[in-house]
Specification:
Distance between the termini: 27 Å
Shape: elongated
Number of strands: 12
Strand content: 15-25%
Radius of gyration: 21 Å
Structural class: alpha/beta
Mean pLDDT: 91
Number of helices: 11
Order of helices and strands: EHEEHEHEHHEHEEHEHEHEHEH
Length: 307
């Protein structure tokens, strides 16, 4: 018998069971425990590693369903080598992440996190919370995938101007600047890059030195590993950054953020950019529809949420 394995939090397991009454549907918190050997379809979330070791424990696996965007935690080449099809929906949550970027930009510009942190430490720092209007600031967006485009859509009506870092794979028609010009001209930087060998810790000391004259706000809405977080926190503490917002914080990142006794204009959230009820509902419906088709026809291939 073939089975569907849903990792907790990746999709609505009860809805899948109702939609597939004749299919065995299992739920596990993660892949640390031995999965059912008859698993043919795996539904997983962000932050769950799927590599050779995990695949060895799933000998019958033929489909991986990622109800979201990022796949840097998935060994795509290993899937391809084993003939396993990857299905993902990269667009469903992008608008919600763009909304988070706007909220983060507004909060940092008004220095709300700084005031909040100071009060929690027993300090009243009103004078240190003199903010700026978003309408006077220029934003540079690094990455023109679904999240970068959504960030631009959310920010553009409220900012002086926005521009993307020029890159050959960018969609046509975007306002682009060279990376050097973007670093020189932007007071807000939105990092919406996928994690690849070329982007790991790309936002590090060299970047921070080059943007320091403008003391910009830095917002990470992609993968935290695209930043040298320790270097960014040092730049925030010594004034080279005016604000720092980090959304894609997983449990393993917590030690990076612990221990500051100085009020900082720092906003951190536990990877909630796409955590919006309507997005969750849309992804759950997509997963159910997809699993219906997979179990009926193994020839299906869906990429990016498009059929």
């Amino acid at each position: 018998m073939s089975a569907v394995l849903v990792l907790r939090g990746a999709a609505d397991t009860n809805a899948i069971r109702r939609a597939l009454p004749d299919v065995a549907v299992h739920e596990l918190p993660d892949l640390d425990s031995p999965p059912p050997a008859d698993t043919v379809v795996l539904v997983l979330r962000s932050g769950v590693r799927l590599g050779e070791r995990e695949l060895d424990a799933l000998p019958r696996l033929r489909h991986v369903v990622r109800a979201g965007s990022g796949i840097d935690h998935i060994d795509v080449s290993a899937l391809r080598h084993r003939g396993i099809t990857l299905h993902r929906n990269a667009e469903a949550g992008a608008g919600a992440v763009g909304e988070w970027v706007l909220a983060a930009a507004l909060a940092l510009a008004r220095r709300i996190p700084l005031g909040h942190h100071a009060l929690l430490l027993g300090q009243h720092e009103k004078q240190a919370c003199m903010g700026a209007s978003l309408g006077t600031l220029a934003a540079g967006i690094w990455g023109a995938g679904p999240v970068g485009l959504a960030a631009d859509w959310a920010l553009a009506p409220f900012m002086d101007r926005t521009a993307f870092a020029a890159w050959p794979s960018n969609p046509p028609g975007l306002r682009e600047l060279s990376p050097t010009a973007l670093m020189e001209q932007s007071q807000v930087h939105v990092i919406a890059l996928p994690l690849r060998p070329t982007t790991g810790q790309l936002i590090g000391e060299d970047f921070l030195v080059r943007v320091a004259p403008r003391r910009p706000l830095l917002i990470c809405a992609g993968r935290l590993e695209t930043l040298d977080v320790a270097a960014c926190l040092r730049a925030l503490a010594d004034g080279r950054l005016s604000g720092l917002a980090l959304d894609p914080v997983e449990r393993e990142h917590l030690p990076l953020l612990a221990g500051s006794t100085t009020p900082l204009n720092l906003l951190a959230s536990p990877h909630i950019g796409a955590q919006r009820s309507d997005v969750r509902g849309a992804l759950d419906r997509w997963a159910v529809d997809l699993l219906k088709e997979i179990t009926a026809d193994n020839r299906i291939l869906i990429e990016g949420g498009r059929r």
